[in-house]
Amino acid sequence: MIVRIMGEGQVEVAPDDIGVLNSLDSELEAAIEAGDEAVFRVRLHALLDKVRQVGKELPEDSLEPSELILPPSDASMEEVREMLGDEGLIPG
Q: Which InterPro entries does the record match to this protein (predicted)?
């Protein structure tokens, strides 16, 4: 899966890593639902850090279409709330 972190670039994430990302996504979504800014910030950074850790960075000039777009690390809770789909930020 090709993932774009807004403002950073693209990484390729293996299918085997989607489960752990979904778990982190669920924790982020719960923090948003609770309106807990401090936990939201920690969960957002944990999700993005994990994507960076497990993902293989694509070259800057790569023209691969992104299958998933994630917010930047400085996104507000409201911005992330607007990006959430029925299955969170990461479907599956």
A: PspA-assoc_dom (IPR054437)
3-class DSSP assignment, residue 85: strand
What pTM did the predictor assign? 0.92
Q: How far is CA 17 from each of CA 35, 42, 87, rounded to the nearest angstrom?
A: 28, 20, 17
Task: List, run by run, the mean pLDDT of 10-residue segments along the chain (92 residues).
Answer: 93 95 95 96 97 95 88 96 84 73
Structural domains of the chain, count: 1
CB atoms within 10 A of CB 15: 8
* Rounded Cα distance, 32 and 39, in Å: 9
Residue range(s) defining the domain that contains residue 41: 2-83
